[in-house]
Design a protein that fits this description.
The complex is a heterodimer of chains A (about 260) and B (about 650). With about 260 residues, chain A is of the alpha/beta class. Chain A folds into 2 domains: about 1-205, HUPs (Rossmann fold), CATH 3.40.50.620; about 235-265, no CATH class. Chain A has helices at about 35-55, 70-80, 95-110, 130-140, 195-200, 245-260, and strands at about 1-5, 10, 35, 60-65, 85, 115-120, 140-150, 155-165, 165-175, 180, 205. Chain A has a 9-stranded mixed sheet, with helices on both faces. A two-stranded antiparallel ribbon of chain A has the order 2-3. The radius of gyration of chain A is 23 Å and the shape is globular. Chain B has about 650 residues and is mostly helical. Chain B contains 28 helices and 7 strands. The radius of gyration of chain B is 30 Å and the shape is elongated. Classes of the chains: A alpha/beta (about 260), B mainly alpha (about 650). The interface of A and B includes residues 30, 194 and 196 of A.
Amino acid sequence: MKIITLLKRVPDTEARILINQEGTGIREDGLKYVINPYDEYAIEEGLKVREKVGGDSKVTVVTMGPEEATELIRTALAMGADDAVHIVDPLLENAGPFTSAAVLAKVIEEEGFDIIFCGKQAIDDDMAQVQTILAEMLDIPQVNVATEFELSDDGKKAVLSRRIEGGDEKYETALPAIISCEKGLNEPRYASLPGIMKAKKKEIRKKTLADLGFETKPQGGRAEIVRWLPLPKSGECKIVEAEELQDAVKELVRLLREESKVL
Amino acid sequence: MSIEGTAILVIFVAVLTAFTLIVRHLYRVMMKGKPEDRFSRWPDRVKSVLVFVFGQARVLAQPAGIGHFIIFWGFIFITLGTLENILSMIIPAFSYSRFIGADAAGIIVLLQDVFGILVIGDIIVSLVRRFFFKPLRLESDDPKTTEEAVFILALIFVLILLMYGMRGTGILLEPNRYSRLYAPFSFYASNIISHWNINMHLANRIFTWCHHLIIFFFLLYIPFSKHIHILGAIPNVFFRNLGPMGTLSRMDFEDEDAEKFGVSKLTDFTWKQILDLYACTECGRCQAACPAYLTEKPLSPYRMIHHLRGELMSERKMILADGETPDIVPDTVTEDEIWSCTTCGACMQECPPFIEHVQKIVDMRRYLVLTESRFPQEMQPVFRNMEVNYNPWAFGYASRADWLDGLDVPLASDKKRFDVLYWVGCVGSFDSRGQKIARAMIELLKKSGVDFAVLGVEERCCGETARRMGNEYLAQMLIEGNIDTLKKYQFNRILTTCPHGLNTFKVEYPQFGYEKPVVHHTQFLLELVREGRLKVKGELGHDWTYHDSCYLGRYNSIMDEPREVLALVHGRDGKEFERNRKRSFCCGAGGGRMWMEENTGTKISEARLREFVEIGSDHLYTACPFCMTMFEDAAKVMDREDIEVEDIAEALVKVT
C-alpha cells in the first residue's frame, strides 16, 4: 500500500507573529518553525496504516516549502516515514491553495497512491483548502476533519468518523481517498533515537517546478492575498474609582453612555 | 598426619577450591557488564574501605547498625579462631601464640569469647526486631528474604553455641588450654558441660566437626544468598563513586548505526552496576528513606536491587554463555517503578555499601525514552516544548525575557564582560511565582552593586530535567546550545536560584567541556551580607523552618548558608524538620516528576507539608523553585493556603 502524508512547515504555535512592514507576509527573523500540528496526526495515521497492512507498504512524506523544511521532514522520517519528496522552488514562496494543490497533485500522481493523509488545516494561514482542491484534481473522495479511521481488512475501503456538534458522523469511503486529520485521531509518536539516526540516511527527493514539468507557477485560484494587516490594538482598560460605590456606578454609566456610546 | 588431620585437610582444600571457583564464576559474570572507569584515587579508595567497611560508618548511622557491627567483628574474630583450629588439626603444633606471643593470642581468644556472647544477644534482639517490631526497612514482597534471614541467624546461633561447646569441652580435657582471664565465658560453658554425663573427648570432636562443617557449608552458601554482600560489599565500597553524588554518565551518540540506547538487559549495565547487585545487604535503609516508597508508589529501591539480583542469579549461566537473556525492563523492573523515582538520592545517601540506584533508574529511563519512545504521555509535550522553545511549558522562546520589562536588567549581549551571570532558569523566567523570586534576586543584586547580567532570550533550559527523564539526546542538545552561548561572554561565576541548574552546571556541564564556578543564591547572598555589600536592617522575628532541597543539600552539601541567611532575617534559629539536611525528604518534583502526574498513593509534597504543619512554625522557606511550586500546590489541595512558602531571597529582600 502506498501511503502519502502531506507535511507543511509552519511557525511554532507559541511563536509571536508579527506582520512585516510591507504587509506582504510575516517577519521571519527569530521565528521557530514546527511541523503543522494537524499534519502530525496525518503522519501518525499513515504509520499506523502501514503497520496494520504490513508487506511492502510505504509511507511517503510530501512537502512543499523552503529549504529549511528539510529539518522537519527528517523529524517525520524519524517518526518512521520511509521517504520523502520535497518541492523547493523560489517561485512557490507564499503560494496560494490552488497553486499548492496543483503542485502536490503532480507529485502525488508521479509517486502513486492508495491513500492520502493530511492535516485538516495548516495553522499558519488556516485556509483549509488544499485537501479539497487536491481531491478535485485527483478526482478522489475526501473526508475532512476525521477523528477516527479504520481500514477494512481487504484495504479497499475505510470507515471514518467526524466529530460534529452533538455527535459523530460515520463515513465509509472507497480508496484511494484523501483524509484530513483532526486532533483526537491518534497520539503522534515521539521519534526514538534509532529512528532519528536512521532518518539521517533516508531519501528526500528534492524537486523544483521544472523537475515536475511546470514551466511557470501553476495559476488558477480566483482569490489572492492582497495585503497582511496587524490586529488593531485593543483599547486600554479604565478602572472607575470613587469613595462610594454609588458614585462609581454613576460614573461608569456616564462613561458608557458618553464615551463609549454603548448605552 | 592423623586420619582426622587428613580428612579436614582434604575437605578444607576441596571447600576452598569450590569457593574460589564460585567467586571466579561471579567475577566472570560481573565482567560481562560494560566497562566503567573506577580506578583513580587509590588512597581514597583504601580509606573508604577502612572507614565504611571496617569502621562500619554508614551501618552505624542507625541504632540497628550496632547489631551488624557486632556480627561483622564477631565474624572476623571467630573466623580467626576457626582457622587456627583447622590448621592445628592439620599441623598439630600450630597456634597463633607461636607467632604473636601468648598475650596477643590471648587477646584474640578474649575477643572471640566476648563477641560470641554479644553475637548471641544480637541474634535474639534481631529476631525480636524482625518479628515483633516489623520495621519498615524490612518490608519485602519476597517471603524468601525472611526465611533466608532467619536461616542464617539460626546458623550463626548454632555456630556460636558449638564454639562454646568446643572450648568448654576443650578446657575440661586440657585445663591449661586457655587462661581463665582470656576465656571467661568458655570457662562458664565448661562448668555447665562438666555436669553432663558424656564422653568429653567424643563430644569435643563432635562439636568441633559440626562447627567446621557448618562453616564450610556457610562458605559455599554465602554466594547464593543475601550474604553474598560479604563478598560484594568490600569491593563495592572500594570502587564507590568518589565524585559528586548522582552524576549521570555521558552517553555517546557518535555511532549512527546503533539500534539501542540505555539499559534493557543485565549486561547493558556496567561491571560496577552488577557489583552493586552483589553488594546489597537487603538492610532496606533505602526503602525506609525513599519518598516514592513512603507514599505508596510502586518503587522501592531495595526491591529493585533485590529483583535485579534475583534475575542476575537465575540468568548468570546464560550471561556467561553470551546467550539471549530476558529484558529486565519491564519484566524485572516495571515502568511504573522506573517513573516513580524523583532521583532525590535518599537511597544512595543511606546505603551502607554505596549502591548507586539513581544511575540505574536513569539508564533504564534512557532505554525507554531513547530506544522505545515509551514514557508517560504527559512527558511528550514537555520534551517537545524543550526542543522547540527551550522550556518545559508551552511558552514561546522569544517571551523568555518578558518578565524583565521595566526592570532595567543588563543583558549579557549588551555587556559582554561582567562579574556574575545570573542564570534565571525556566521557572524564574516563565512561572509567575518563580518570577517573584527572580525579581527579589534582581533587587538584591542591584542593592549590593553586583556587576551582573542575564542572558535573556539567549538562555535555554539547562537540560537537567530532560537528562533525568532519560532524554539524554535532548539534554545534550540543550547543554551544547547553552555552552555555545556561555562561551560568547566573559564572566567569573554563574549564579543560580535553582539547585537543579546549580548541580547541572557544576557537575554535568564539565562532561561537555565547560567549567565555570557556580554559586547558589543562598551562598551568594550570605557572601554579600558578610562582605557588607548588603546591609540587614532589622529582623522579622518569626519562627521559621527551612526545607532542604535534595539537589542543594544532599547533592551539593549546601545546608548551612540558607540557614544562616534566615537566622539573620529573623534574628533566631529555625525550627527544624525531623528529616533535615542530608536526610531531607524530597518535595516530589525531582527527576522530571514535576511534569508527571502523581496519581498513586499520597502526594509526596503533601506528606512533606504535613510534616511542616506538625512543627508548628510560622514560615516555610525553600531555596528551590521546584520545591516552592510543589508546596504551594500542596497547600492549595490541603486547603491550607494560609501556609506561606517563600524563597530565601524574598525573605532577605524584606530586611535589606
